[in-house]
Every structure is written in C-alpha cells, then in structure tokens.
Amino acid sequence: MKKKFLFGKTWFFENFVPREPATSTWCFLIEKEIYSGESQYQKIEVFETKEFGRILALDGLVQLSTKQEFVYHEMLVQPAMLYYWVAGGRSPEKILIIGGGDGGALREIVKHKAVKEIFLVDIDKKVIEVSKKYLLSVSRSAFKDKRLKIFNEDALKFVKKYNNFFDVIIDDLTDPIGPSLGLWSTRFYKDILQALKENGVAAFQTAYLREKFARKARKKIKRISPFFKFHKAFVGCFPFDEHTFSFGSKKINFDKFTFEEINKKFKKLNLKTKYYSPEIHFSSAILPKGVK
C-alpha cells in the first residue's frame, strides 16, 4: 500500500499482486484512517472513504468496501447453496468457510436456517477482531450465531483432517500473497474436493476475469473437478474487470439446472439478497467471446 499526498489530500494506491504486471493500479481518497496495524501475518488497514464507505486492505490490497461487498459475498455463497439445495432436495448441513475473516461470507451462510454447523478457518485472528470492531455492517450479527465454530489455524493443514465431510465449502481467500500464497495450489484444491461430500459443492473466489493468476486458478479447479462452472459480477472496489466465482463438484452437473428450479427454491427459501437473484444466477454465467 502506498499513500500519496496529492492535491493537498492523502490517497491510497493499491499494491500490485506479486508476479502480475506492475503497470497500472488504482487509488481512492482517504477521508479518515480508521485502523492501521500489523498482525503476525499481514498489515491490516481500514479506511473511511466517501465513494466506497469503509475499505479493508490487507498488505496493501483491497479486500472489500462496505458499500459494495454484498455483490461479492452473495455471488460467492448463494449460487453454491442453491446448487446444493436444488440438486439434493434438502439443505446443506455442514459448511466450511476458508478465510472469510471479515464475516461477509458467514453472513450469507447464516441466512440459511436449516444449516446445522458452520466451520470458519482463518489463520489470522486479528482480521476477525478488526472486522468485528470496525466493519460491523459486513458481518452484522453473524459471528454470534450458535452454529459457528472458529478455527484460527493454517487452512492447508486443517482441510487435510476431513474426508467426505462438508456439504458446501466456501474458499474466500485473499489473492496469492502472504498467508494465502500456498492455498492457490492444485494440491490444496484437491484437498478441498477430498473434504467435500460426493454431492457437495465447493465455491472459490477466483479474482478478475482476465488476471493471469486467476485464469490459472480456474484451470486448476476445472482440471480436478468432475463438474465445474464459474460466474462473474462487477464489484466496484475491484475496478479493473469483472470478478469471478468458481464452483466445483464431484457429482453435481451445474449445466443441468433450469431457471424454474432455481427460481422456485429461491422463492421458497425467501432469501433476502441485494444483488443475487435467479435471473443474475443465469446471466452471470454467460461469458464474453474468447473467455473460458
């Protein structure tokens, strides 16, 4: 993260992702620095801005904005939950969230009242503490949910403990820097599939549509998943391209679902969403020419 004093004011310039072209970045005007500190693993910052609300940055990379995070978190979680619901005719019961210390993915999971257990594994306890204190609008009351168990452990080791256990796994990692670097690997994706039940669904945040490391990640997930699909959405605090959300399963063929099936279940669940809908579910899977 670089702070520049321009036009008499202080601006945040986002860092570059390692091994990606360092040719362009973006910035925003800082109205107020809410928090700045270092955990054992990374630098954590929260800023107040006029256009984006509060922004969370880890090691100089923007993770969310409070005005736009709902697009990201709904698109990461709700397609996976609806895929599982419709395919199996029942609610997923055991959920694993990898990363997600800000609580946004957790908030989307707790909307599903039939879920019985939610495991959240995030190596950095400080991210959770900062988010609960300064980003309350993201998690709301989700961290108080009695179904939740939090593990501040290395997800690489944690996932290996489970076999055919989780109905839905949400991989909500930061981009491949710091503590997340080793988790963007084929080996880790295989471990996730191993921890997933045969009829389960795994969801992955896979960054920008055309970003080099993101394209590689989607190829890795597709290669090891019998069934694969990805959706996309524009998230304002990730301004260079549409963001992608990838889904893998051992048994569920994502291309077999109809609008009527998804729409019927969505209405029955009475989910309160601000962006995701059955219409968005299908339109977000339509890709531009030349993109796979």
From TrEMBL:
The active site is at 172 (proton acceptor). Spermidine binds at residues 73, 102. S-methyl-5'-thioadenosine binds at residues 42, 122, 154-155, 179. It catalyses: S-adenosyl 3-(methylsulfanyl)propylamine + putrescine = S-methyl-5'-thioadenosine + spermidine + H(+). Pathway: Amine and polyamine biosynthesis; spermidine biosynthesis; spermidine from putrescine: step 1/1. It is an enzyme of class 2 (transferase). Residues 9-250 form the PABS domain. Homodimer or homotetramer. This is Polyamine aminopropyltransferase. It comes from Candidatus Nealsonbacteria bacterium CG_4_10_14_0_2_um_filter_37_10. The gene is speE.
